[in-house]
Request: fold
Amino acid sequence: MNTLKVLFVPAEFEALTPADLTEATCVVFDVLRATSTMVAALNNGALGIVPVATIEAAVRLHELDRDVLLAGERHGIRIRAAQTGGIDFAFGNSPREFTADKVARKTIVTTTTNGTRALRACLGAENVFAASFANLNATAARIRDLRPDQLLLVCSGTGSEVSFEDALCAGALADLLWNDTFASDHADSAHIARSVYRKHQNDLEGAMQHASNARRLLALPDLAADVDFCLDRDTADFAAVLGSDGTVRKAQPFL
Reply:
């Protein structure tokens, strides 16, 4: 039976094994802000984004290729020289930073607290997508084309906890796919996420009062605008796929 399931907390994606992923398609959400930022960068012409788990891994890739741009955060703030041993990252994790004049035709290496770890945890899956409200319909369309046997909606979370905004976005995707025949078995987790979304779908901005990550960003003048930016729906017309080489790119049309 084909299943639709949501993983809410990091402990769940960290526990994934190759056997769990053999026939799985994974969709990773880090709405505030990693996957929203990846979609924004690709939408503005970036060639690809390489998610890595640690600052050290990002710096090593930059040493191998000085043309790649470094991006990422710890505790929501851009990574600086004091954390790397000498190099400031070009970007933090704000999607508004990744403008076309800065990222067009560039490859970006990024490390974030949770989102990049979630993506890497899914690398053994048959298909892996980075999703946000910005490319939700495009991601749903791609999944309909694939008709996966197992669909895992992976919430990156905040720290070690569930994040309201990721559950909300996972629920929105579940809602789009709910009546598709390939998703014939909805796990309890999918029902929960969909119920959360359907309750708040007409006021996503108001729903952010329930999201600790959103409240934290809204309290920071330089980052407050990220919240509304990340709630904008379907501003990108492509699915973002994590390839076997570990790079997130725009999904290419099926031949």
Residues 209 and 215 are 7 Å apart (CA to CA). The mean pLDDT is 96.
